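Blinded run. Sample ID left blank on purpose so nobody reads anything into the name before looking at the predicted structure. Input follows.
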Amino acid sequence: MIEEKAKKIYRTLLIICAVYFIVVTIAHQMGIKLPMLFVFYNIPSERYQDLIISFLSFGWAMLFGIGFMDEEMRPRVQVPIMIAGIAAICGLIRTRMEIQFHDEINYEIISLAVLLFIMITTYILAVTKKGSK
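Blinded prediction complete.
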């Protein structure tokens, strides 16, 4: 029962990440600057930057989607997908911490840090339960 719950949580995280990156892709394609979809939503960006980011985001969405949908491939892609997701979130946190345009606490950094903590904790719990069988 616990293993099934861990699988559901893991699959939920995968689909949330896939949907998030699809939304990022759409926002960058359309140039809709919204917090959490653009790292620097309050400064102008070049169109080519938005297009590059949109294609990269689409690739991330597909990676998370593969992990969510493909039952046979899932065991082989779990670790690379989690590492890639954690690296992306760490990169966003680092970028926002290094380049601050205002002094108040940035809710984006806190949100990304919470997401990172949830992903790592869920993955560790799922692997621990799987390994204890």
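Unblinding after everyone has recorded impressions. The chain has a mean pLDDT of 79.
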